[in-house]
Design brief:
The protein is mainly α. It has helices at 3-10, 16-21, 27-58. Helix 1 runs parallel beside helix 3 (27-58).
């Protein structure tokens, strides 16, 4: 798989607005931005899971 194919394979995981905004960039620059965007999405998901776990522990209505 070459760089172009790899970058295109990442596009479904990336915010469509970002894909549109950088559509004319080179593939090496797109790769950096796509990977960064994917990483940020995973970090946001992880943060949300941590907040949910914290809320479950601190919820006084929780049944034991």
């Amino acid at each position: 798989m070459n760089l172009e194919d790899y970058v295109k394979s990442l596009e479904p995981q990336v915010d469509p607005n970002l894909v549109w905004e950088i559509r004319e960039w080179t593939y090496d620059n797109k790769l950096y931005m796509y990977l960064h965007n994917i990483q940020l999405a995973y970090m946001a998901e992880f943060k949300q899971l941590l907040l949910e776990m914290k809320n479950e522990r601190t919820n006084p209505d929780r049944l034991y």
